[in-house]
Amino acid sequence: MTETFEGGCSCGAVRYRLTSPPMFTNCCHCLDCQNQTGSAFAINALIETSRIELLSGAPVVIEMPSPSGRGHEIHRCPKCQVALWSNYGRRSYLRFVRTATLDEPHAIAPDAHVFTASKVPWVKLPEDARAFEVFYDMKQEWPATSLARRKAASRA
In CATH, what number does 5-155 get? Predict the structure, then answer.
């Protein structure tokens, strides 16, 4: 897997680089993601905020409610309004990068499919997909190195 990934919005006003591979990548089938993307799911690469390097421009933060009640900040291009990444639950050290905004949007495959209980019925998951009706136990599903990265980031 590539060590860095570049991406940006549709109009090119905001460009960024992920300075490492993500810790874990979810394909989220929740109704919130479906509503906010206007699609069947969102693919989010979880990465430390410190590993997102802005190359040009700066996203604006749009506050959204969340089913958890902890809030959801969507970081969007101020010009074309493309969602680049999110901060769920007010964790300033962690971002959920929309893999579709990468220059190579299919370079990062999902590690797990979450909230499949609300998956649209015509989406068929691969036979070998790690799929969860709601969410999963991170300690069981994430690699040890990713858990260590997340713990280190939360303490920084």
Answer: 3.90.1590.10
